[in-house]
Amino acid sequence: MSPRPAPSPMPDDSEQGLDHLGLIAEMMQEFTGSGNFERMVHRGLARVSRHLGAEGSSLFLTEPRRGITAPDPTPDIVCYACHGPVDHSGLRLAWGTGLIGRCIARHQSQAVDYVHGDPPPTDEQICLLLGGDPGLTLRSLLIAPLTLNGEALGAVALVNKGDGEPFSDADERLLIALSSAAALGIINIRLARQLAEQERLRHELELAADIQRGLLPAARDDTFPLHGLNVPLSQVSGDFYDVVVLPDGRLWGTVADVSGKGLNAALLMAKTSSLFRCLAKDSPTPTPAALLARISEELCETASHGMFVTMACLLYDPRDQSVVIANAGHEPPLIHDPVGNSFTPLTVGGPPLGILPGLFDPHDAQQPVQQRLILPPGASLILLTDGLTEAANSRGAMLGGDGLRPLLSATAPLRGQDRLHALFDLIGEAGWNRRDDMTVLTLTPSPAPCWRLDLPAVPASLTILRRFIHACASVLQAPADWADDLVLAVDEAAQNIIRHGYGGGDVQRPVWVEVLPQAATTDAAGAVVVRLHDDAPTVSPAILTPREQAPLRPGGLGLHFITALTDAWELEPPPVPHDDRPRAGVPHGNCLRLVKQRPAASMRVAVQETKKD
C-alpha cells in the first residue's frame, strides 16, 4: 500500500473548485448552526458522498475510555454513523489501530488507491487497515481527521469512488476542509451538551440544597435559648445543626461535621441528621453520650469510602439550668462569660462517629466523653465547626481559635439569630475568607448584665471594636444616631491608645473595653459607661486636656471630639497590670471612662419620628 503525497494546498482554479467552495460554505453553516447532532451527521455524510461520488462514508469519533480505578487517557474510536450499502455503526477501534486509528492519532489525512496502485487487500488486510470488516470490496479509500486546536475528535472516511477511479487531490482537499467545519460543529454540540448538563446538575444541586435547608430547624425568637446557623461553602453542606424540644421542656442541641465534601458528604449529613432527630425523640433514657454511641453504631452498618462524622451534642434542662454535653472528635465547645470575657474550652470527648463499631464508648472511664455543667449568668455555650477557625486571610494564615475569640466577644451582646449573622459578617469584614462550611450553635439561657472585649493593640482591631459597640447599642435599643456617636467616641479613644500609648500598635499588648448599661452601674439613670483599659505608660490626668482649637493645625483635637460626642469622660486609677513584665520603675496602666446618657423613651420616639420626616 502506498499512500499518495499530501495534496497541494492550492484549490482548483476551475468550475469544480468553485463548486467545492460552495459546498464548504453550505456545510460549514449547517455544522456550526445545527442543534440536532445526529441529523447533521447523516445529512452531511449523504451530501459529501453524493458530491464526491463515493459509494459509502462513515464518521468515526473518539470516546473517553473508563478505566477500573481512573479514567484512561487513551480514548476509543467508535463509528458513530454511516451512509451507503453497509452500516457498521457502533464498531469500536482501539487507539492507533488500523489506517483510521493511525490517521486520527497522527492528525494526517490518507488517500489510498487499490485500482492503479497497490493490489486490492484481502479481507484480513481490510480488517488490519480499518480496524474492522467494512463488509464490501475495497477499491479506494479517503480519510480526513477531525482536529481542532490539536485535539483529535475523530475522522471522516469515504470508500470507493463510483466511477471506479481513485479519489483526487481536489477530493482530498475538499474532505479536509469539510472535516474542519465538522470538527467545529462537533465542538459546538459538545459545548451545548456540557452546558445543558451543567444546568441540570445546577438545578439538582439547588433542589438538594433546598432539601438540606428543610432539615435544619426553623429560627426561633430571641427569648429561645438555643440558636444555630449554617452557611455552606457551596450549594450543599457537610455540616449541620439541630434543635429538638422534648415534651418535658428539655432541649437537645447538636452540631456535626461530615468528613469530605460534595454530594457524598451532603448525603451522609442528611442521614446523620435524621438519626439524631429520631433517636433524640425516642430514646427511653437519653444522655448525649448514649445518643452519640447509638448514632455511631447505625453509621457503622452502612459506612463507606472511609467517611466519618465529628459531632458535639448537648442536653439542656431549663429547670435547673444544667447542661450535659458529649463530644465525638469535634471542635471543643466553648463557654464564654461576657462579664469577664473569659473563654473555657470543654476538652472532654471521644473519637469520631462511624469509624468502627464500639469505638465510641459512652462508659469509658479512661476517656470520659461526657460532662455536666452549670453556665454562669449571662454566659453562652458555643458549639462550632472548624470552618470558622480555618477561615484564611489573603496571606493564607488561618483565623484559628485565638483569632475567633475576639469576634465571638464582639457579637456577644446580640441575641438569637442576629448574633450569629453578625458573627459571620464580621469574619468577612475583618478580612477572613471562608474555605469550608461554617456552622455554629449557641446556648444562652439568660442575657448578660455587661460586656467586655479584649483586643490586640493594632489598627486592624478597630473594625471588631466598632462592631462590638454597635452590638451593645442594638441590645440597648438605642437610636441609630446615638449609637453612631458612641461608636465614633470609642473609636477615637482606641485610636489614641494605639497611636500614642503603644507607639502605633503592638500585637502583643492589649486594649480591653467594658460596656456597662444602667443595670450594671451607679451612674445617672439611663447612662451607659464605657471603660477603655490599656497597660501603656500611665498618663497624668493633668496633661490629658484638650488643646486650644486656634490656631488651626492637623491633629490634637481628639479630646474635643470625644467631649462633643459623650456627656462626660475622665481618667480612672490605673487597673492591675496586664502581665508581670518588668516596667523599669515606670507606672503602667490607664483607664478612660466615657459616659453617655441614653435618651428617654419619649425622646427616642421623637428622634425616630424626626428621621421619618
Nutshell version of this structure?
With 613 residues, this protein is of the alpha+beta class. Helices cover 36% and strands 26% of the residues. Strands 3-2-1-6-5-4 form a six-stranded antiparallel beta sheet. It has a five-stranded antiparallel beta sheet with strand order 7-16-15-12-13.
pLDDT averaged residue by residue: 81
Low-confidence stretches: 67-71, 519-524, 580-585, 602-613
Taking strands numbered 1, 2, ... along the chain, how are they ordered across the largest sheet? 3-2-1-6-5-4
Taken from the alpha-carbon principal axes, the silhouette is: elongated
Instruction: Look at the helices and sheets and give the structural class.
Output: alpha+beta
How much helix is in the residues? 25-40%
> What proportion of the residues form beta strands (DSSP E)?
25-35%
Distinct helical segment count: 14
Distance between the termini: 95 Å
Task: Report the radius of gyration as a whole number of Å.
Answer: 38 Å
Beta strand count: 21
Q: Tell me about the largest β-sheet.
A: 6 strands, antiparallel
Description of the structure:
Helices cover 36% and strands 26% of the residues. It has helices spanning 15-33, 37-52, 98-106, 123-130, 169-215, 262-282, 288-302, 386-389, 400-411, 416-429, 461-475, 480-501, 558-565, 601-612; strands at residues 54-66, 71-83, 92-93, 110-113, 140-148, 151-161, 226-231, 239-245, 251-258, 309-317, 322-328, 334-337, 342-345, 370-374, 380-384, 438-443, 451-457, 506-516, 527-537, 568-572, 588-597. The protein has a six-stranded antiparallel sheet with strand order 3-2-1-6-5-4. Helix 6 (262-282) crosses helix 7 (288-302), helix 9 crosses helix 10 (416-429) and helix 9 packs parallel to helix 11. The protein starts with 14 loop residues before the first helix and ends with a helix. Mean pLDDT is 81; it is low at 67-71, 519-524, 580-585 and 602-613.
